[in-house]
Amino acid sequence: MQKFVVILGAAESGVGAALLAQAKGYTVFVSDRAPIQPAYKEKLANAGIEFEENQHTLDRILLAELVIKSPGIPEKAVVIKALREKVVSIISEIEFASRYTKARFVAITGTNGKTTTTLLTYHLLKEAGLSVGLAGNIGYSLAEQVIEDKHAYYVLELSSFQLDDVQDFRPWIALLLNITPDHLDRYEYSLEKYAEAKLRIAQNQSLDDYLIYNADDDNIGRFLKTAFMTAFVLPFSLHHRPDYHLAGYYEDDCTLRVHLPIEDRHPDKVSIENSPLIGQHNHQNMAAAILAARVAGASPAQIEAALATFKNADHRLQLIRELDEVQYIDDSKATNVEAAWYALDGIKRPIVWIAGGTDKGNDYTSIVELAQQKVKALVCLGVDNAKLRATFEGVVPHLEETQSMADAVQRAAALASPGEVVLLSPCCASFDLFKNYEDRGQQFAAAAWALPPSESVPSV
C-alpha cells in the first residue's frame, strides 16, 4: 500500500515536495491555509495532485504517515500541535529531497549575507566547471530539481526555519556566516534557541565533511563548540588571528590567504581585487565562498576569474548608475540596523543617505558614530520619521523629510557633490510606502535613471 504524505503549504518548497513525493510513488495531499497562487495551483492540477486551499482539514491531515511542512508554518500553529500530539513525523522539504539524491550539498546559513554567499558560491563552482544546482531559500525547490537529479552538487541557501525540521540532512560543506538576533519570536525570544537552529546545519556532518565558519562572529564563538564537531572545521577572519588555526584570512584589502589543512595543500592566495562586491561584510561572504570553492577543487585562478564576472542579487549594495561622478547605490534589502551598518561601513566616499520606513523597534545607537563620520546628509523617507530625526539630528550636518521615492532621490541628488554616493539603505521595513523591499529598490532605480544631468539639477 502506498504511503500517505501530506504537504503543508503550497508555495515553492511545498509544490516541489509534492511533485517529488508523487514521482516516488507516494499518495499525496497538499493543504494550504491561505489561497494558493495560480501558477502553483496549475502545477498541482496538471500533475493530478489533490489539494485544498484556505483551510486545513485536520481529519484528513491527521491520517498522514509523513508530513512535509513549509518553513513558514510555526510550531504554535494548530495543525502542527495536533500532528505533534499524534506523533506524526514532520520534516522539511530539504530533508525529504536529500533522501532521494546522492549529490553533495554545499549549504549556507547565517542571519545576514546568505543570499550573496549562496549566489557567489554557486557562481564559483559553476565557472570552475562543476555540475551544480542552486536551491533552498533562494527561491528554487530542491525537491523539484531532485526529480531529474542531474547535478553532482547543489548549493543551498538555508534559513533557520528550513533547518528546524531536518533529521538526517548532511551537507558535505556547511557555511556558517553569522548569528545575530532575528526571528526570535519563533524561538521563544531566546538567542540560544535561534543559534541551535542555525547550528543544525552541521549536526550530521562526519569526518569527510567541512564546516566553514566566521571566527570574527561573537555568537558563533559562544554557541559553536568545535570540540564536539567531527567535521573538518575551517574558520575564516578579516585579519590574521593567532588564537585560531585559520583556513582563510585577509593579508590586505584585496588578498585572501587560504590554507586548507587537507591533502597537504600548501597555502595559496586569492585576489578579490576585481570583485564588484562592496564592504567588510562582503569580504566575509567572499572568504566563505572562496573557501568552499577551494574545498570543492576550484583553483585560485578559476576563482579570481569568476569573482570578476559575478552579479549579485538585486537591492544588495547594487550600483544603479553613476551620474556626474555621483554613484547611486540601492541597498533596499537593508531592512535592519545591522545591514545598514554594513553599508555605511563599506562605502569609502561621503554619503547622502536615504533611510526610513516601518520601524521594527530599531535601536540606531550602533550606527550613530558611523553616520557622524561618513554621512553628509540624511534624507528621511517614511510616513513617520520622528525616531530617525530624534537620533540623527545634530549627528549629520543636514537632514530632510520626504514622503516619496522620487522626491527623496531628487533631494539627495541635489545634495550630493562629485565623488560622493547617494545610498538607499533604509534600516527599516518597506510597508509604509511600498509593497516590499523589491518595490522600494525598483522605485529608487527608476528615480535615479530619471535624473537629468547636473546642469538641470537645482542647486541647494
From TrEMBL:
PROSITE patterns in the cross-refs: FOLYLPOLYGLU_SYNT_1
Pathway: Cell wall biogenesis; peptidoglycan biosynthesis
Record's keyword terms, sorted: ATP-binding, Cell cycle, Cell division, Cell shape, Cell wall biogenesis/degradation, Cytoplasm, Ligase, Nucleotide-binding, Peptidoglycan synthesis
InterPro entries the UniProt entry points to: Folylpolyglutamate_synth_CS, Mur-like_cat_sf, Mur_ligase_C, Mur_ligase_C_dom_sf, Mur_ligase_cen, MurD
GO molecular function: ATP binding; tetrahydrofolylpolyglutamate synthase activity; UDP-N-acetylmuramoylalanine-D-glutamate ligase activity
Database matches in PANTHER family: UDP-N-ACETYLMURAMOYLALANINE--D-GLUTAMATE LIGASE
Family: Belongs to the MurCDEF family.
Protein name: UDP-N-acetylmuramoylalanine--D-glutamate ligase
Gene that specifies this protein: murD
